[in-house]
Specification:
flat; single chain; two-stranded parallel ribbon; two-stranded antiparallel sheet; alpha+beta
């Protein structure tokens, strides 16, 4: 590397996600070092959302059938069906007046 060196930075404080969302990556990749630091008001802001399978657990697993596509020169793939589903969830979150989320 001709005198250059690579450094790795591990960010261990998360200010946006609910603890339940961080559980898997914390156990799998961070060896327990990932710390949820967001305010309780922020990380709990979407609990109770009517589309949650369990209203006190802020994760939705949604199986999708779709087609992986990519633009001609891009090495990255995308699935438009998945994008449309995520968009529908975001729009539903934005419409729900009971949620305290803000942009």
């Amino acid at each position: 590397m001709d005198g250059a060196f690579a450094s790795v930075v591990k960010l261990t404080k998360n200010y946006r996600s609910h603890e339940a969302i961080l559980k898997f990556p914390n156990e799998r990749f961070y060896k327990g070092e990932l710390v949820p630091c967001g305010s309780q008001r922020t990380i709990d802001s979407c609990l109770g959302f009517p589309l949650l399978p369990t209203r006190r657990f802020p994760i939705i697993f949604h199986a999708m059938s779709g087609k992986d596509d990519r633009e001609a020169t891009s090495p990255s793939f995308f699935n438009i069906s998945e994008v449309q589903q995520v968009k529908a969830y975001v729009e539903a979150l934005k419409r729900d007046r009971h949620l305290r989320a803000s942009a």
